[in-house]
Amino acid sequence: RAPGVINFAIGTPGADLIPKHDIDAAFTSAITENQDPLMYQYALSEGTLPFRTSLARFLTGHGFAFGGAPVGEGNLSATFGNSLGLVTVSKLFAKPGDVVVVEDPTYFLAGKMFHDQGLRCVRVGVDQH
């Protein structure tokens, strides 16, 4: 990969943005403290309650709020990747014919996903700011 080039082809963050040690510790803790064999099954589509509770606590602790109140687990829903997240959000908040503005360059599947829902995707160039 060329220095300074951001690869949008697979939609993942750069390795330097992944807190590997924190994730390793979280996995180790979850596995060693787990008493529920269902943890090893597919999760609920909105995410497990312990996950959403922990995420709500984290977001609230970092100053995020929902309607002026602390973020609660009922305000959160996880997705199985960015594609599902984009489709879900656009189905909830947009209707066919609406315009969706995305940065250019953008996630390579975004345009197709929005187009398939009848949305008009407008790309806007970005700079260092």
Structural notes for this entry:
The protein has 129 residues and is an alpha+beta fold. It is 36% helix and 12% strand. The chain contains four helices and four strands. The protein has helices at residues 20-33, 49-61, 82-93, 110-116; strands at residues 65-66, 69-70, 99-104, 120-125. The strands form two sheets. The protein has a two-stranded antiparallel ribbon. A two-stranded parallel sheet has the order 3-4. Helix 4 (110-116) links the parallel strand 3 and strand 4 (120-125). The longest helix is centred in the N-terminal third of the chain and has 14 residues, at 20-33. It is globular.
Question: Which structural traits does this protein have?
Answer:
4 helices; 12% strand; 129 residues; two-stranded parallel sheet; alpha+beta; single chain; two-stranded antiparallel ribbon; 4 strands
Strand order of the largest sheet: 1-2
Which structural class matches the secondary elements? Answer: alpha+beta
The SSE order reads HHEEHEHE
Poorly predicted runs: none
**For the report, how would you describe the main beta sheet?**
2 strands, antiparallel
Distance between the termini: 24 Å
Please count the beta strands (DSSP E, at least 2 residues each).
4
Q: Can you tell me the overall shape?
A: globular
Rounded average pLDDT: 86
Question: What is shown here, in short?
Answer:
With 129 residues, the protein is of the alpha+beta class. 36% of the residues lie in helices and 12% in strands. β3 (99-104), α4 (110-116) and β4 (120-125) form a beta-alpha-beta unit.
